[in-house]
Amino acid sequence: MDVDVLVAGAGPTGLTLGVDLARRGVAALVVERAETLFPGSRGKGVQPRTQEVFDDLGVLDAMRAAGGPYPPRMIWRDGQQLGVRPMFEPVEATEGAPYTEPLMVAQWRTQEVLHDRLTELGGRVAFGRELTGLDQDPEGVTARFADGATVRARYLVAADGGRSAVRRAVGVGMTGESVDPSPFLVADVRVRGLDREYWHAFPGEDGTGLMLCPLAGTEDFQLAARLPEGETPDLSLEGLRKLVGAGTHLDPADLTEVRWASEFRPRAALADRFRAGRVFLAGDAAHVHSPAGGQGLNTSVQDAYNLGWKLGAVLRDGAPDALLDTYEEERRANAAAMLDLSTGVHRGEVQRGKATVQLGLGYRESSLSEDTRPEPAEPRAGDRAPDGTVDGVRLFDAFRGPHWTLLGAELPGVRSLPAAPSYGPGVFLVRPDGYVGWAGDSAEGLDAYLAGVGLA
């Protein structure tokens, strides 16, 4: 084997997985078809649950430095300001959930932070490596590249986007629907004549319109527009100037530069499977969202976070390969729910706020969630493990790292802490990805669970 894990795609999904595997000592290689990291803003919202993930991976401070908070939205019509509206329903922070507001980080900056962290941990990205085919056998996967090279890996993870070459190579279908018949465009631009205190919205009379959002941590604005049905987006400087001139009070020349631009048709689609033998699908290769509500990038990062510790457990800790089946079990259902949510936000049926911060996501129905208490109270097995303090130790600090954490009992080889008052009475085993795996009134019966995840 050349590597334990080959990761196709150096977007947020592939880089997150690369970071998680590197800190676990798993030999992994991230390959990217392009010669550089993705240059645009696209997915810019980092939800509170993803901030917790980034805290664990050691990059939250860098993410905060690379971005900033979301501004309120200023509504314009005919050159007049109609009023200011918040972008999100407020969600109150608590001891158990300290992060409640989305963070704005341009996607290209998110990727830079993750790439820097990957390099710091000894991992790397091989750029200019286009995967063109693969073969599987009982021992591993052989990936073929456009330059004629091959890489042999025990497992392959497709993080290569909505048009995934890996997904097509393994014959996994994708079922979905159009969310909106209208064409959309998104671009990173330089604009003069607008302040950076607001996300400026210019709604049209017919459901069309455009928005100009100051991208935190940069000098750019993100231009996003919904065009009339049947119109072909013009992504050139002149085309975007014409759009801004027609849809806002700005002069076309106030748009001074186009740094990146793309068009898309909002779609919701879900891969029929997330695992095909030794190949796993993650991120947009597994699910494609409308950008409304900021769920796509976040769901993708959490795919990688779920899969990373399981690959590490199988490859380094002796856990059975069957543990990897729980990736599809847990993440496909989660992605399906997030697709429905994204579509609901796009169509105005769901408000951004409590529904979109992803703090309520969990795996109660998973085969990895075992609660032996006769009358379980929250948190239950499968729930996100909340923050708190035990003997002066912050739980998120105790959780940080690739290990399991046991609250309320002691276990050799596992980080153990006294019972957490905020959790109530009982014993709680917290997974490496911050979810309660096992809960009981005592530690009785825990041994059998530990054996299934490679800890006994």
TrEMBL record:
Residues 2-341 form the FAD-binding domain. Residues 363-389 are annotated as: Disordered. The lineage of its organism: Bacteria, Bacillati, Actinomycetota, Actinomycetes, Kitasatosporales. One of its GO terms (molecular function) is oxidoreductase activity, acting on paired donors, with incorporation or reduction of molecular oxygen, NAD(P)H as one donor, and incorporation of one atom of oxygen. Its cofactor is FAD. It comes from the Bacteria. This is Pentachlorophenol monooxygenase. It holds the Pfam family FAD_binding_3. The keyword NADP does not apply.
